[in-house]
Amino acid sequence: MSAKLETGAVAPQFDLPADGSGRVTSASLAGKKVVLYFYPKDDTSGCTQEAIEFNGLRKDFEAANATILGVSPDSVKSHDKFKTKHGLEFGLASDEEKTMLQAYGVWVEKSMYGRKYMGVERTTVLIGADGRIARIWNKVKVPGHAKEVLEAARSL
């Protein structure tokens, strides 16, 4: 079962495979603001729109000393294709085992047309340079979301 995180809590540690056959760890991001955006699936309409919006503001996030990291249960191979297809210039982490998704409380029971299943609840977590959760956006609606996260990152 997934835990629910709270603002001010220390962000859960992670170590995951990432696009380009690399790895991304919480330790490698220490001392920076981190935008973790959790999304259900590569190359679906909402997830693509969200990725493109974050990518379009990438330089603004960098200017705010914030690193963007997308996380989904898709494979590294899927992430590599998704990044290439849409020209994404930020990291994507693969959590096929769902350990990070559970630690961040975003692996939840969902329902569609009366059918229940487990999946990723579209969520963004802003982590401060101190390693604590500064803000959480649950059940994200994509349009304009990246701009809202950028403003929050700038004000940290």
Explain what this protein looks like in three dimensions.
The protein has a single domain (15-155), classed as Glutaredoxin (3-Layer(aba) Sandwich), CATH 3.40.30. The protein is built from five helices and nine strands, in the order E-E-E-H-H-E-H-E-H-E-E-E-E-H. The chain has helices at residues 45-56, 58-63, 76-86, 99-103, 145-155, and strands at residues 15-18, 22-25, 33-38, 66-72, 91-94, 107-112, 115-120, 123-127, 133-137. The strands form three sheets. It has a five-stranded mixed β-sheet with strand order 5-4-3-8-9. It has a two-stranded antiparallel sheet with strand order 1-2. A hairpin with a 3-residue loop joins strand 1 (15-18) and strand 2 (22-25). The protein starts with 14 loop residues before the first strand and ends with a helix.
Q: Helix and strand layout, with pairings?
A:
Layout: E1 15-18, E2 22-25, E3 33-38, H1 45-56, H2 58-63, E4 66-72, H3 76-86, E5 91-94, H4 99-103, E6 107-112, E7 115-120, E8 123-127, E9 133-137, H5 145-155
Parallel strand pairs: 3-4, 4-5
Antiparallel strand pairs: 1-2, 3-8, 6-7, 8-9
